[in-house]
Amino acid sequence: MRRVPSEGSSVTSASGHIDPHLEISALDRRLFGGFVEHLGRHIYDGIHEPAHPTADADGFRTDVIELVKELGVSTIRYPGGNFVSGYRWEDGVGPVAERPRRLDLAWHCTETNEVGLHEFADWLDKVGSDLMLAVNLGTRGTQEAIDLLEYANADADTDWTRRRAENGRDEPFAVKMWCLGNEMDGPWQLGHRNADDYGKIATRTAKAMRMLDPGIELVVCGSSGSGMPTFGSWERTVLEHAFDDVDFISCHSYYQEMGGNAQEFLASGVDMARFIDSVVSICDAVAATKKSDKRIMISFDEWNVWYLHNDEGGQNDKPEEAGWPVAPRLLEDRYHVLDAVVFGDLMITLLQHADRVKSASLAQLVNVIAPIMTEPGGIAWRQTTFFPFSITSRLAGERVVRVPVTSGTFTSERFGEVASVNAVATIDDEGVSVFIVNRSTTDAIDLAVDLTAVVAAFGRDLQVSESHLLHDDDIYAANSLEDPERVGVRAIDAVAVADGSLSLTLPPVAWAAVRLS
């Protein structure tokens, strides 16, 4: 049974302070990235539905375009994901009518290739996001990767660039960030390799790609999760090969409530923080052995709440349709308020590590474990997780600062004593944005945040210009096709600045954002 908050919650106090001198890092906007994979109804019947009443001349749903723009996604990773390890990128260019239909072994579906590199880049122009490409190092190798790079980025007269022009693109796509495969540590991955073999092909491919385009940034595959049996040794071995040739190492992590234990689920941010800290330590240890002052950054290019496992230990990622369907309903998780509060805490955790997490990709965007859902021929709507992402992306300023908080704790089965309140802030020339979560399932929190140092830095008083609260008395409330606006955000009832302090009250299981200007 699910454990839910008890009625008549008590109120406890917490305190914190914001000081510009506690800066973590400048904020890289790529931290607000996303991920679009050829999987389920993500592409087809998601972003691309030519028969939809809102479809534009290119077949893209304009209602979805507007929601993605509202979400505020910076860089979008494409085309996978597990899908990329069996993908032939050439299938997705050229006249659409001549493109081959292929079986996608990763998700047991049929890929029509109606949408490929050109179409997806056009869609990115519509939503205002940048492209991050993954190359296939599962069933393909170095030559195919540099062919794709030449096709996408080369500014020269070659066979590949002529083909690009024939397909409608005279100018290069100028893709900056490239992933060297996907989750190559996972036995489920086509072309799965051990760390030594993957490290060798990754560094060979990286060297070749840099010979063609020295200005690109490269992401080498880290572990598919901190629970992988090879976690730690994988990162060390791969980086011993690829350290000099890459800029980022990837992290992937998904979270879900298990056994109805909401309180344990609310400690997920602690797990993400420990994962990041462990990978940073390994990266820096490899740097030390190489006597290098280079710092490998983290691309946390898959993260989300995902109900991958059922309580019996099985997986929920199999198509319901038999055979090899086109765009089946797959991984269409329905997110409730509890999920969104955990999700908001994960965003806070990423910001708290902005000195090393320079890129992150919410996996995914539409229909597939997504903040946006669609119905074929019908509406598009926001899931609960949409709100913390869109608000954080919009309000986050140029510099991230720590917000030390003293609060009560709860006992986690995995992590021991966990702080009930987690917070981070950003500062820009116009003001301060504060992001806060109350992880407690039982206690409301009266929080006082000392603004003395930040007011002194601005040389003027700050006032609340907007506030947002994500909370519901039913933590399992969710939006749906039938009731797409059941859950939303509202202004915080009790929030104010007085005597140099921000004060607000957060109910149990709540995420909040406050803008001071």
Description:
- The protein has 517 residues and is of the alpha/beta class.
- 25% of the residues lie in helices and 25% in strands.
- It contains eleven helices and 25 strands.
- It has helices spanning 62-71, 117-127, 142-153, 159-166, 195-212, 233-242, 262-265, 268-289, 337-352, 386-395, 452-458; strands at residues 10-17, 23-26, 33-35, 75-78, 102-104, 109-111, 130-135, 177-180, 217-220, 248-255, 297-305, 357-363, 372-374, 380-382, 399-402, 405-406, 409-412, 416-419, 421-428, 431-438, 443-450, 464-470, 495-498, 501-506, 510-516.
- Strands 3-4-7-8-9-10-11-12 form an eight-stranded parallel barrel, surrounded by six helices. A six-stranded antiparallel beta sheet has the order 2-15-19-20-25-22, covered by helices on one side.
- 50% of the residues are buried.
- Mean pLDDT is 96; it is low at 1-6.
How far do the termini sit from each other?
45 Å
Please give the number of β-strands. Answer: 25
Largest sheet properties: 8 strands, parallel, barrel
Based on helices, strands and strand pairing, what is the structural class?
alpha/beta
Beta-strand portion reads 25-35%
Helicity range: 10-25%
